[in-house]
Amino acid sequence: MKRQCFYSFNYAPASWRISMVRNIGAVEGNRPATDNDWEAVTNGSDPAIERWIATQMKGRCCTVVLVGSNTADRKWINHEIVKFWDKGMGVVGIHIHGLINQDKKVSIRGKNPF
Predict the structure, then answer these.
(1) Given the DSSP bridges, would you call strands 5-9 and 90-95 parallel, antiparallel or unpaired?
(2) Contact, 62 vs 92, CB < 8 A?
(3) CA angle 70, 25, 98 (to 5 degrees)
(4) Between 26 and 43, the higher pLDDT residue
(5) Which residues pair with 64 in a beta bridge?
(6) Distance separating alpha carbons of residues 108 and 49, to the nearest angstrom
(7) Higher confidence at residue 29 or residue 22?
(8) How far apart are alpha carbons 48 and 54 in whole angstroms?
(9) Core-most of 1, 64, 75, 114, by most CB within 10 Å?
(10) 30, 60 contact by CB (below 8 A)
């Protein structure tokens, strides 16, 4: 059986880097949320965001936290980490600060979100 990961990340400042990593998921059938989908979700209420996250987590065996310069201490990233951890599922972090953005620049290393 094919296993699928949930990706946890701070969307806005690192979207280019995130898409580079998430596109690897095309091999496993993990379609990234489009910008429009993500904006619609984040404009919702906290319960609506929690429901969306819960839906996205279904069928996943672990979460991969893509750690950018502003990932640590983000409300929804913390929520996702705790949910997976509490279910005894795998949680791993990957620093993405060394990947280039659309302007061919790298960012500073972010704090550990764990």
Answers:
(1) unpaired
(2) yes
(3) 35
(4) 43
(5) 7, 92
(6) 28
(7) 22
(8) 10
(9) 64
(10) no
b/e per residue 33-70 (b: at least 16 CB within 10 A) = eeeeeeeebeeeeeeebeebbeebbeebeebbbbbbbb
40-71, pLDDT tens digit by residue?
A: 777 778 998 898 889 889 989 999 898 988 89
In angstroms, the Cα distances linking 36 to 93, 113, 114 are 26, 26, 29
Residue 91 sits at φ, ψ, to 5 deg, of -135, 125
Q: Please report, for the chain, the start and end positions of each structural domain, with discontinuous segments joined by +.
A: 5-95
Instruction: Determine the distance from the C-alpha atom of residue 7 to the mean position of all C-alpha atoms in its chain, rounded to a whole number.
Output: 4
Does residue 112 have a pLDDT over 60? Answer: yes
Do 30 and 62 touch, CB atoms closer than 8 A? no
Q: Could you tell me the pTM of the whole model? A: 0.78
